[in-house]
Sequence to fold (138 residues):
Amino acid sequence: MSRFTAFRILESACIGAVLIALAGCASGPAPAATAANGPQSKAAAQASARSTEHLTKVQKLVAEARQAGLPDVYADVRNGHTVYCWRGKNIGTLIPSTKCVNSSDSLRQVIRALAAQRHQMMERAGGMCGGKAGCAGN
Fold:
């Protein structure tokens, strides 16, 4: 099973757990018991909201990275922290290796570097074609 598949399973499990927790809250205990557990249930709801918000941010960042040119990027949780990994080939070898960064800011830097590299290549190609967009016809 690939890590991407494992992430999707983990993602589905988290969403399922949140839905079950919400369903449990809808058919929860009597109001007197809820009042006694008010601060604890409020803290649990806030933690759940933060978890869902974090998962949404991770999904958006992974989608952005895929669109930028990292097709097999995935998020993984290691030691309680989210890391972003992808497979790529190192210069001088055909053997792919896994590269990981440990923060969303680092992944955004990789995305910006890929965009800058793509832009630079397009400028060079435009210079060889005399500034014309489609240089295959020349």
Q: What stands out?
A: The two ends are 48 Å apart (CA to CA).
